[in-house]
Amino acid sequence: MPMVDVGAGLQSLGHEVTILTAAEYADLVEAAGLQMLCLPGSVVIDPPAAAPVVMRRMPPAVRRFWLGRAELDAIFAKPLAAEAESLTSALAATTYDAVVADVTFTGVLPMLLRDDARPPVVVCGVGPLTISSTDTPPFGMAWQPEAGVDYTQMTAVAHRVIMRASQRRFDRALRRAGCGRSPVFISDWPRLADGILQLSVRDFEYPRSDLPATVEYVGPVLPDGTAGFVPPPWWREIERDGTTVVHVTQGTFDNTDLNQLIGPTFEALEDLDDVLVVATTGGRAGQRIADRIPSNVLVAEWIPYSALLPNVDVMITNGGYGGVQYALGHGVPLIVAGETSDKAEVAARVAYTGVGIDLGTSSPSAAAIRAAVDAVRRDDRYREAAGKLRTVIEASTPIDAIASVLKRCADA
């Protein structure tokens, strides 16, 4: 949970941090030594539902529209009023010098739209940058930008026509919170904050000639996470020379059906004697995994990336932003299969920056996975590109940068 990591980092610098989040994260917050305020039980964001079977046969752009519309409502609009009420209560009870919000926490928006006195508000970009630009296609379509193309009209059509119903539902949520209509499109709401801190490096984003001055790329927050970790009995197997170690994961959120990606990966690589597959399941209740585990596959619920990734040659993922940042922080090339949430946008950036392959679906075939793994093993350019991003990430100091921005905003 990146905001817990941000909070723990700020607290390590001597700042007092309280996190407002769902009760299900209480153990994480407690382990980080942070104070916690609980959101009401009505603020629940479930893993995104898979597209209906008939939708899976549609072109990718149609599927992304269907999924994107549902997720904008579920993540940005539905929880807004309850989040805003909780935040207002917290600020009334205690004086805070600043508010640092996850980009999905739209409960800060009513405070930004009112003229009342308030602390500075800074938004943390825990996913790809959502801000609209003349230089990039509309966020959510996962199209890579072409140099020299002006996307202004395309974005206007997407916002005012294609996604009009979603914007109306967002505005209704704002009215329930006591505000008027949003002056910007849903995905552009961070523009209204005092600062936007992107938890990645500029080299992993599309170039924008009109990037707001409030946006700063601070780098990913990648805590070690190995304290208390006990390696599984098979750990020495991943340290063997001459073996390509492939890590496959569906992350910690969109991981109920492990046969979307983990199962096909087992099938794709089971006959390769020089490949070892390490799968992490995330440990969510109700998961389903392949009945037969191939002999070259090792499975665990969770392994800290700081321990695992130094031994990994290729990472196959559904595109969770945090996991991708960890992989790039270790110079590991990626194969991405994701469509829900912002995962298609993450996959597009992986392909655009040359650090891996975008499979263009959340349910790839075993043949597609095999071809992608063969390509990454054969072509050193993927590892070289990932290595360059590793160098840039290693030079970043995200917690210091976040603290500096907060001080600047508080002093303004």
UniProtKB/TrEMBL annotation:
- What keyword terms does UniProt attach to this protein? Transferase
Any single biological process term in GO: antibiotic biosynthetic process
Tell me a Gene Ontology molecular-function term this record carries.
UDP-glycosyltransferase activity
The residues covered by the Erythromycin biosynthesis protein CIII-like C-terminal domain are: 267-393
Q: Which stretches are annotated as coiled coil? A: none
Entry-linked SUPFAM superfamilies: UDP-Glycosyltransferase/glycogen phosphorylase
Tell me the InterPro entries matching this sequence: EryCIII-like_C, Glycosyltransferase_28, UDP_glucos_trans
Looking up Pfam families in the UniProt record yields: EryCIII-like_C
Keyword set includes Cytoplasm? no
Query: What sections of the protein cross the membrane?
Result: none
Gene Ontology cellular component terms for the protein in this record = membrane
Q: What is this protein called?
A: UDP-glucuronosyl/UDP-glucosyltransferase
Organism equals Mycolicibacterium gilvum (strain PYR-GCK)
